[in-house]
Design a protein that fits this description.
This protein has 140 residues and is mostly helical. It has helices at residues 2-28, 36-39, 47-58, 63-76, 81-102, 107-134. The chain crosses the membrane at residues 6-24, 60-79, 85-102, 114-134.
Length: 140
Protein backbone atom coordinates (compact mmCIF):
# COMPACT_ATOMS: atom_id res chain seq x y z
CA UNK A 1 0.00 0.00 0.00
CA UNK A 2 2.96 2.31 0.41
CA UNK A 3 3.61 2.78 -3.31
CA UNK A 4 0.07 3.82 -4.26
CA UNK A 5 0.11 6.21 -1.28
CA UNK A 6 3.41 7.68 -2.47
CA UNK A 7 2.03 8.07 -6.00
CA UNK A 8 -0.99 9.89 -4.57
CA UNK A 9 1.33 12.13 -2.56
CA UNK A 10 3.24 12.97 -5.74
CA UNK A 11 0.00 13.88 -7.51
CA UNK A 12 -0.93 16.22 -4.67
CA UNK A 13 2.54 17.78 -4.79
CA UNK A 14 2.40 18.32 -8.57
CA UNK A 15 -1.11 19.82 -8.42
CA UNK A 16 0.12 22.07 -5.60
CA UNK A 17 3.00 23.33 -7.76
CA UNK A 18 0.63 23.95 -10.68
CA UNK A 19 -1.68 25.85 -8.34
CA UNK A 20 1.14 27.97 -6.93
CA UNK A 21 2.41 28.79 -10.42
CA UNK A 22 -1.07 29.87 -11.54
CA UNK A 23 -1.47 32.07 -8.49
CA UNK A 24 1.94 33.73 -8.73
CA UNK A 25 1.71 34.31 -12.48
CA UNK A 26 -1.72 35.91 -12.11
CA UNK A 27 -0.49 38.12 -9.27
CA UNK A 28 2.56 39.10 -11.30
CA UNK A 29 0.42 39.99 -14.34
CA UNK A 30 -1.96 41.87 -12.02
CA UNK A 31 -4.90 39.75 -13.12
CA UNK A 32 -5.67 39.10 -9.46
CA UNK A 33 -4.83 40.99 -6.30
CA UNK A 34 -2.80 39.27 -3.59
CA UNK A 35 -5.61 40.30 -1.22
CA UNK A 36 -7.89 37.81 -2.98
CA UNK A 37 -5.98 34.99 -1.30
CA UNK A 38 -6.67 36.27 2.22
CA UNK A 39 -10.23 34.90 2.16
CA UNK A 40 -10.41 33.54 -1.40
CA UNK A 41 -13.05 36.11 -2.24
CA UNK A 42 -13.20 38.66 -5.00
CA UNK A 43 -14.54 39.53 -8.40
CA UNK A 44 -13.17 38.68 -11.82
CA UNK A 45 -10.80 35.99 -10.61
CA UNK A 46 -9.04 34.27 -13.54
CA UNK A 47 -10.27 30.78 -14.35
CA UNK A 48 -6.77 29.34 -13.96
CA UNK A 49 -6.65 30.52 -10.34
CA UNK A 50 -10.09 29.11 -9.55
CA UNK A 51 -9.59 25.82 -11.41
CA UNK A 52 -6.16 24.99 -10.02
CA UNK A 53 -7.16 26.02 -6.50
CA UNK A 54 -10.27 23.87 -6.57
CA UNK A 55 -8.35 20.92 -8.01
CA UNK A 56 -5.76 21.25 -5.23
CA UNK A 57 -8.44 21.45 -2.52
CA UNK A 58 -10.11 18.42 -4.05
CA UNK A 59 -6.97 16.38 -3.33
CA UNK A 60 -7.65 16.78 0.40
CA UNK A 61 -11.25 15.66 0.36
CA UNK A 62 -12.13 12.11 -0.73
CA UNK A 63 -8.50 10.98 -1.05
CA UNK A 64 -8.23 11.14 2.75
CA UNK A 65 -10.42 8.02 2.91
CA UNK A 66 -7.90 6.37 0.59
CA UNK A 67 -4.98 7.28 2.84
CA UNK A 68 -6.83 6.04 5.93
CA UNK A 69 -7.68 2.66 4.43
CA UNK A 70 -4.12 2.24 3.11
CA UNK A 71 -2.72 2.98 6.56
CA UNK A 72 -5.20 0.56 8.11
CA UNK A 73 -4.02 -2.21 5.76
CA UNK A 74 -0.43 -1.46 6.71
CA UNK A 75 -0.97 -1.15 10.47
CA UNK A 76 -3.07 -4.31 10.60
CA UNK A 77 -0.55 -6.20 8.49
CA UNK A 78 -2.97 -7.13 5.72
CA UNK A 79 -2.17 -7.16 2.05
CA UNK A 80 -4.40 -8.56 -0.65
CA UNK A 81 -4.36 -8.54 -4.41
CA UNK A 82 -7.84 -7.01 -4.35
CA UNK A 83 -6.71 -4.18 -2.07
CA UNK A 84 -3.57 -3.54 -4.11
CA UNK A 85 -5.41 -3.45 -7.44
CA UNK A 86 -8.10 -1.20 -5.98
CA UNK A 87 -5.44 1.14 -4.53
CA UNK A 88 -3.67 1.51 -7.87
CA UNK A 89 -7.02 1.89 -9.62
CA UNK A 90 -7.88 4.77 -7.30
CA UNK A 91 -4.55 6.48 -7.95
CA UNK A 92 -4.83 6.09 -11.72
CA UNK A 93 -8.32 7.55 -11.73
CA UNK A 94 -7.21 10.44 -9.49
CA UNK A 95 -4.41 11.24 -11.95
CA UNK A 96 -6.92 11.18 -14.81
CA UNK A 97 -9.39 13.24 -12.76
CA UNK A 98 -6.76 15.91 -12.01
CA UNK A 99 -5.65 15.99 -15.64
CA UNK A 100 -9.22 16.51 -16.82
CA UNK A 101 -9.81 19.11 -14.11
CA UNK A 102 -6.73 21.12 -15.09
CA UNK A 103 -7.23 20.88 -18.86
CA UNK A 104 -10.65 20.52 -20.53
CA UNK A 105 -12.55 20.41 -17.22
CA UNK A 106 -15.19 18.29 -18.94
CA UNK A 107 -17.74 17.73 -16.19
CA UNK A 108 -19.02 14.35 -17.38
CA UNK A 109 -15.51 12.88 -17.79
CA UNK A 110 -14.45 14.38 -14.47
CA UNK A 111 -17.51 12.94 -12.72
CA UNK A 112 -16.98 9.48 -14.21
CA UNK A 113 -13.32 9.37 -13.14
CA UNK A 114 -14.25 10.66 -9.69
CA UNK A 115 -16.84 7.92 -9.17
CA UNK A 116 -14.52 5.23 -10.52
CA UNK A 117 -12.04 6.27 -7.84
CA UNK A 118 -14.76 6.27 -5.18
CA UNK A 119 -15.71 2.71 -6.14
CA UNK A 120 -12.07 1.63 -5.85
CA UNK A 121 -11.89 2.97 -2.30
CA UNK A 122 -15.19 1.32 -1.42
CA UNK A 123 -13.73 -1.98 -2.65
CA UNK A 124 -10.70 -1.41 -0.42
CA UNK A 125 -12.84 -0.73 2.66
CA UNK A 126 -15.03 -3.80 2.00
CA UNK A 127 -11.94 -5.96 1.43
CA UNK A 128 -10.40 -4.73 4.68
CA UNK A 129 -13.66 -5.25 6.56
CA UNK A 130 -13.83 -8.85 5.31
CA UNK A 131 -10.19 -9.45 6.29
CA UNK A 132 -10.66 -8.05 9.78
CA UNK A 133 -13.92 -9.97 10.27
CA UNK A 134 -12.38 -13.23 9.02
CA UNK A 135 -9.53 -12.83 11.47
CA UNK A 136 -11.72 -12.46 14.52
CA UNK A 137 -12.14 -8.71 14.45
CA UNK A 138 -9.97 -6.23 16.23
CA UNK A 139 -8.87 -6.93 19.79
CA UNK A 140 -8.94 -3.57 21.49
Amino acid sequence: MFYPMFAMFMLIFVVGVVTARARFSNIKSRDVSPKYFLLMQGDNVPESVLKTGRCFSNQFEFPMLFFVVCLAYMVLGFETLTGCIAAWTFVVFRFIHAFIFLTSNNLIKRMLTFWAGVLAVIVMWIDLFILVSANGGLNN
